[in-house]
Amino acid sequence: MSSIGTGYDLSASQFSPEGKVFQIEYAYKAVENSGTAVALKGKDGVVFAVENIVLSKLYEPGCVKRTFSIDEHIGMVVAGLQSDTKALVEIARDECKSYRENFGSPIPVKSLCERISMHMHAYTLYSAIRPFGVSILLGSYEKDGAHLYVIEPSGMYYVSLAAAPNVQVPGSLLRNAFGRSCARIRPSDSEIILSLNAFKAYEGCAIGKARQNAKTELEQIKLGDMDIQQLIKEAAKVIYTVHDEIKDKNFELDLSWVGSKTDNRHQVVPPEVHKEAEDYAKRSLEESGDLDEEIGML
C-alpha cells in the first residue's frame, strides 16, 4: 500500500483521504498470503486444485481443509483465513438448506453465489464488524452445463460466461463495464450477445498468493475443449508450476471435481486419479526444467 493507514484502518466503514478502505485491503492481503487455488471449467464439468501449504510437521495430513462440498452438486475452494472460511462454509450450507426447505429443489449455484456475496459485502459496511479475509471459488455442473464463480472479500463476484453460446445481459450494463468493443449490439439495442473470446480467461480462475502466475499458465491452456479427466491433470500441473519451493517447501495437493462423470456431484478425486494427475504434474515440471537447461546451454 502506498499510503499509511494509521487512523483510517480502524473501521470497515471509514475511507482514507485517497478514497481507500484499508480494512478491505487487509482482507485482500490475507488472501494473498494463502496458498494458491485454481478452478478450471471444461465441456463436462469443473475441477478444483488447491496448494495446501504444510505450516508445521506436527500437522496430520488433511487436517487443514480448503475444499468443501457445500451441497451435493456444488464445490467450493477458498484462500484466506481459516476462521473466516469456517464461518462462510456454515453460512453457505445454511443457504442451501433454506433453499431446499422453501422451494423443494437444490439451490442453483448462481443463487448461492449471490447470497454469499451479499453476506460478505454486508461485512464491509459497518464499523462493528470487519470484512471476511477470504476469496472463494464456486463450481457446479447443472442441466445447462458447467458454472464457475469467483467471490472476492469485498463481496464482488465474477462469473464464467464462456460455456454459453449466446449469453444475454442488459446492454447498458455491459456498455458501462466493457464498452462496445467486446459485444455485438442487437437491433433492439437492449441486449448484447457477448463475444466469447472476450471472456475466454474466465474458463479458469485462480486465487491465493500465486494468483497472477497461475492465471498466466491458465491462459496457455484450451480449457473449453477438455473434459474433467484431462482438466484435473492440467490443474495439478498449474499448482506445481506456480509453487514456490524456496518459501514453501512442503504442500499437499487437494483435487476435486464435479461434472457428468460424477453424476453432477462434487467429489474428491479417487486416489488413482490423484496419483496420475500428480505424476503428470511432476513429469511436466521436470521436462520444462530440462528444456530450460538445454536453452541455457545454447
TrEMBL record:
GO terms for cellular component: cytoplasm; nucleus; proteasome core complex, alpha-subunit complex. GO terms for biological process: ubiquitin-dependent protein catabolic process. Its main location: cytoplasm. Residues 273-298 are annotated as: Disordered. Keywords: Cytoplasm, Nucleus, Proteasome. It comes from the Eukaryota. The keyword Cytoplasm applies. Residues 8-30 form the Proteasome alpha-type subunits domain. The keyword Cytoplasm applies. It is found in: Cytoplasm; Nucleus. Pfam families: Proteasome, Proteasome_A_N. Residues 273-286 have a biased composition (Basic and acidic residues). PROSITE patterns: PROTEASOME_ALPHA_1, PROTEASOME_ALPHA_2. Residues 287-298 have a biased composition (Acidic residues). The 26S proteasome consists of a 20S proteasome core and two 19S regulatory subunits. Belongs to the peptidase T1A family. This is Proteasome subunit alpha type. It comes from Hydatigena taeniaeformis (Feline tapeworm). The lineage of its organism: Eukaryota, Metazoa, Spiralia, Lophotrochozoa, Platyhelminthes.
